[in-house]
Design goal:
By secondary structure, the chain is an alpha/beta fold. It is built from six helices and five strands, in the order ααβαβαβαββα. The protein has a single domain, classed as ATP synthase, F1 complex, gamma subunit (Pyruvate Kinase, Chain: A, domain 1, 3-Layer(aba) Sandwich), CATH 3.40.1380. Strands 3-2-1-4-5 form a five-stranded mixed β-sheet.
């Protein structure tokens, strides 16, 4: 049976761990507030940009110039695709990383005959797919620590250029969408060819520039904004998941401390009782 010293060492170790988990929870809570504000600000802009693309495309319907825009041209057969995987650089966030990694892997497995390359945004996704033999076409780190639009735009420009050059036939993005502090939802969305959303707006718009010129300018920006929103969603989800995980770890540490303290008290009480019995037995023997 462990000695009292062993119990005290265990309690001290768990208390030190609990202090770390509480500190990490507070840090994640502070970061979550800023990340949540960024997500809520980015969503309306991304939605309006998608509606604008649909309106412009509808106005240019039948135009040969629009049909020739490379980012709108779907492939008859998809043979090579890129999966932009947005994960975290660190763990200790519950099932955050495993959910997006396994979800992306399942999506890839459901596309028979398509060779996927992984454009990794985050260490955890890169390590997961590298161990499984996938080709890593890009490795981008530290996006979630402080998201910068220019970094995301560089990734968007890279996949857009490859798609326009015919090197790849489709681009998807996998990320955790922020729903609430307790809930994050896996999303796998097509980025290229650009999907044009159907709009219920039947208003006829007058454009200063030809519609095909506007589309040629808007399509690359749309890819950038979609990836930017995905990174912001993933960042907020990561902080929420880590805050929840650290809160659960702190509560578990309290339960462990209570349980070990109870065991230590029982051992100490048994030791005291044994010493009393020894003293009484010794006194009785002297009579």
């Amino acid at each position: 049976m462990p000695s009292l010293i062993d119990f005290r060492r265990r309690i001290r170790s768990v208390k030190n761990t609990q202090q770390i988990t509480k500190a990490m929870k507070m840090v994640s809570a502070a970061k979550l507030r800023r990340a949540q504000e960024a997500v809520l600000a980015a969503r309306p802009f991304a939605n309006m940009l998608g509606q604008m693309l649909g309106n412009v495309a509808r106005a240019a319907a039948g135009s040969d110039a629009v049909k020739e825009l490379p980012l709108l041209q779907p492939r008859e057969t998809v043979k090579t695709a890129v999966m932009i995987l947005v994960s975290a650089d660190r763990g200790l966030a519950g099932a955050f990383n495993s959910n997006v990694n396994r979800g992306a892997q399942k999506f890839i497995q459901d596309q028979p005959g398509v060779t996927f390359e992984i454009e990794s945004v985050g260490k955890k996704g890169r390590d997961y797919f590298r161990r499984r033999g996938f080709a890593i076409s890009g490795d981008h780190q530290n996006f979630s620590r402080k998201p910068v639009y220019a970094d995301v735009a560089a990734v968007a420009a890279k996949v857009s250029q490859r798609y326009a050059a015919g090197e790849i036939d489709a681009v998807y993005v996998a990320y955790n969408e922020f729903k609430s502090v307790m809930t994050q939802r896996l999303q796998v969305e097509q980025v290229l060819p650009v999907p044009l959303t159907e709009s219920a707006d039947t208003t006829e718009y007058i454009y200063e520039q030809p519609a095909e010129v506007l589309l040629a300018s808007l399509l690359p920006r749309y890819v950038e904004v979609e990836l930017w929103r995905s990174v912001l969603e993933s960042t907020a989800s990561e902080h929420a998941a880590r805050m929840t995980a650290m809160d659960a770890a702190s509560r578990n540490a309290s339960e462990v401390i209570e349980r070990v303290t109870l065991q230590m008290n029982r051992v100490r009480q048994a030791s005291i009782t044994r010493e009393i019995i020894e003293v009484v037995s010794g006194a009785s023997a002297l009579k």
